[in-house]
Amino acid sequence: MKRKENGLLERWIRFNGVGALGIGVQLVTLSWLVRALEVHYLWATVIAVETAVLHNFVWHEWWTWRDRRAASATMIVRRLGRFHLANGLISIVGNLVLMRLFAGMLQVDPVAANIIAIILCSFVNFGASELFVFK
User: Fold this and answer.
1) What pTM does this model have?
2) Count of helices and strands (H, E) across the chain
3) In angstroms, rounded to a whole number, what is the distance separating the alpha carbons of residues 34 and 108?
4) Is the distance from CB of 58 to CB of 22 less than 8 angstroms?
5) 10 Å Cβ neighbour count for 37?
6) Burial per residue of 49-62, b for 16 or more beta-carbon CB atoms within 10 angstroms, e otherwise
7) CA 16, 6, 9: angle at the middle one, nearest 5?
8) Interval 16-54: pLDDT, tens
9) Which of 50, 58, 74, 135 is the most buried (most CB within 10 A)?
10) Chain centroid offset of residue 58 CA
């Protein structure tokens, strides 16, 4: 029996599962850069977000939107480009603005500030992925 296409709720759950793994990737990267290498928190944020964006794209392509799998390597590259335009841009700009606010202006610990930024950006990222990236 063929499995029917994922429903929006199932996809949202998968998206958040991948996102939870991506949060781990992002926070470990950010912590390592800020605490071990003493990289400025804004530069560390860009690198950590990009690492998580690439991680999440792979999982979304192969699991979250597996019912919309790309038919060719060219299509995967195009999706990666759209993913960076949407989720990458939302995540990087959103995280930088929110990190500047929370960690810079309000003096919140960079890791705690990053958790808040990730949660706020996740809602916009799901909509962008569903409607633009994996359409």
Assistant:
1) 0.76
2) 5, 0
3) 14
4) no
5) 8
6) bbbbbebbbebbbe
7) 45
8) 999 999 989 999 999 999 999 999 999 998 899 889 989
9) 50
10) 11
Spatial separation of the C-alpha atoms in residues 132 and 109, rounded to whole Å:
34
Distance between CA atoms of 17 and 36, rounded to whole angstroms? 28
Query: pLDDT tens digits, residue range 51-104?
Result: 998 999 999 999 999 999 888 999 999 999 999 889 878 888 998 999 999 999
Of 85, 87, 80, 49, nearest in space to 62 by CA:
80
Token digits of residue 113: 């500030």
**Distance from C-alpha of 135 to C-alpha of 14, rounded to nearest angstrom:** 16
